[in-house]
């Protein structure tokens, strides 16, 4: 079973890129972030014509998450992270697919830091940690994937010294990520490639992609029942080089179920 995560950076403006990638990569499940479209303008027909069912939580101009499945039934569980009924950002959606609970998330960026946006990032992180803890303790097979907006270690950034004051790299952000990991989750990519330089995001400026001046912020976390099932993983790096593409590249794992 191949599961992918992809921050599309605007699903309607990048639709040709998304459809091309779905056709070439053929993931069984695709978790998307930054749809940047209201609920009613999600391109459901085009996704269906590509062979995928979809559930999504849209928001005008910002955020937005979706889970797509190919030849698999999808049962929505929730479309908001518990803990704050007043938080209207569409940043989390959860479903059961093929017996696996899949949480697709888009964690807040948090810049500029310090400030209200960084405070919101850490508060959202706390809610994620609380919900993830319940999921992990349930003993169910769970995948938590998406754009975490966190570089966990120095190896996850090209020239990490340039990021020391950025919300994605501040000690509080990395500490929150490691607090989450310490519940028992497996960082799938780092487990299979512990020392390899792997990036998932390259800025549009200063030829970052051409210079491979990237960062790794899109992650897969696996619960205990799935750890032994992890077969392979990777980044579809070439997609970042396509015309009118997102600044992220798709990341994928393969589970031997």
TrEMBL record:
Residues 4-248 form the Endonuclease/exonuclease/phosphatase domain. This is Exodeoxyribonuclease III. Mg(2+) binds at residues 7, 34, 147, 149, 247-248. The keyword Magnesium applies. It comes from Taibaiella soli. GO terms for biological process: DNA repair. Belongs to the DNA repair enzymes AP/ExoA family. The record marks 248 as: Interaction with DNA substrate. It comes from the Bacteria. The active site is at residues 106, 147, 248. Probably binds two magnesium or manganese ions per subunit. Keywords: Hydrolase, Magnesium, Manganese, Metal-binding. The keyword Magnesium applies. The record marks 218 as: Important for catalytic activity. One of its GO terms (molecular function) is metal ion binding. Its cofactor is Mg(2+); Mn(2+). The record marks 149 as: Transition state stabilizer.
């Amino acid at each position: 079973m191949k599961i992918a995560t992809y921050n599309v950076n605007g699903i309607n403006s990048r639709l040709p890129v998304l459809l091309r990638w779905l056709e070439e990569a053929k993931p069984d499940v695709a978790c998307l972030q930054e749809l940047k479209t209201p609920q009613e303008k999600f391109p459901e027909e085009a996704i269906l014509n590509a062979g995928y069912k979809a559930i999504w939580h849209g928001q005008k101009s910002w955020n937005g998450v979706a889970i797509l499945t190919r030849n698999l039934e999808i049962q929505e569980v929730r479309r908001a992270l518990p803990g704050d009924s007043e938080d209207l950002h569409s940043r989390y959606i959860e479903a059961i697919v093929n017996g696996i609970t899949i949480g697709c998330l888009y964690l807040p960026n948090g810049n500029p830091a310090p400030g209200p946006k960084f405070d919101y990032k850490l508060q959202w992180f706390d809610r994620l940690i609380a919900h993830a803890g319940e999921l992990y303790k349930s003993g169910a097979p769970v995948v938590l994937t998406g754009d975490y907006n966190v570089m966990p270690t120095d190896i996850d950034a090209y020239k990490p010294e340039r990021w020391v004051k950025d919300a994605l790299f501040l000690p509080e952000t990395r500490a929150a990520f490691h607090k989450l990991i310490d519940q028992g989750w497996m960082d799938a990519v780092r487990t299979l490639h512990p020392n390899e330089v792997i990036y998932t995001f390259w800025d549009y400026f200063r030829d970052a992609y051409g210079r491979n001046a990237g960062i790794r912020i899109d992650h897969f976390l696996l619960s205990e029942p799935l750890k032994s099932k992890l077969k392979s993983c990777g980044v579809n790096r070439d997609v970042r080089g396509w015309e009118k593409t997102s600044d992220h590249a798709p990341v994928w794992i393969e589970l031997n179920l």
